[in-house]
Specification:
- By secondary structure, the protein is mainly β.
- It has one domain (about 1-185): Porin (Beta Barrel).
- The protein is about 15% helix and about 50% strand.
- It contains three helices and 14 strands.
- A twelve-stranded antiparallel β-sheet has the order 7-6-5-4-3-14-13-12-11-10-9-8.
- A hairpin with a 4-residue loop joins strand 9 (about 100-110) and strand 10.
- The termini are far apart.
């Protein structure tokens, strides 16, 4: 299943220019870069995740059902791959990312400090991940053990409310993107 999701993200990898370690803006690139809009959580909207060239590679459907907001992460054909349900009336210290009704990742806020945050991501059937850095300002990295599998930065794009996510090419790109969205929701409550 994980292999199929990695292959589904393969089209997004085709946008890579200059290899996985090409330097951009002083930061070493680790893989494919995606553009994320910081404020796309509008009820009933469809949002497209683009690669750095502006090609649409994934989409996110946002719907409100009963007392929860549901985000569906889809391929460009509209096939649901991941789902996140945000309960309106609950304290958010943990959120789940689901695939076919089963939790594939749980994001936990492990430590909050003024300048540096640490988040734990439990991944079903794989080694857990950790997000470390300045979460509130979208300047952090996602690690599997000692290896960086994702990097987030607002410095890569000069558009307000936009940040970039670099995903190592051997990773499930959409899962890493969904994790960054969940961290964004949890870190910016009330937005």
């Amino acid at each position: 299943m994980l292999r199929r999701r990695r292959e589904a993200a393969g089209g997004a990898r085709a946008s890579r220019r200059g290899g996985a370690t090409a330097a951009t803006g002083g930061e070493e690139r680790i893989g494919t870069r995606f553009k994320m809009n910081q404020r796309f959580f509008t009820i009933g909207d469809r949002y497209f995740i683009e690669n750095e060239r502006g090609d649409r590679v994934f989409r996110v459907e946002s719907k409100i059902l009963r007392l929860r907001t549901t985000l569906k992460f889809q391929d460009m054909d509209g096939n649901d791959i991941y789902k996140v349900q945000e309960k309106v009336a609950r304290v958010r210290d943990t959120m789940e990312i689901e695939h076919d009704g089963h939790a594939v990742a749980k994001v936990h806020n492990a430590l909050i400090t003024p300048l540096r945050d640490r988040w734990k991501i439990s991944v079903s059937g794989d080694e857990d991940l950790t997000a470390k850095g300045n979460i509130l300002n979208h300047e952090y990295k996602i690690f599997r053990g000692d290896q960086v599998v994702g990097a987030v930065s607002k410095k890569w794009f000069r558009v307000r409310d936009m940040y970039g996510v670099d995903v190592r090419d051997n990773q499930d790109a959409l899962l890493i993107l969904a994790i960054t969205v969940v961290i964004d929701i949890m870190a910016h409550e009330g937005r």
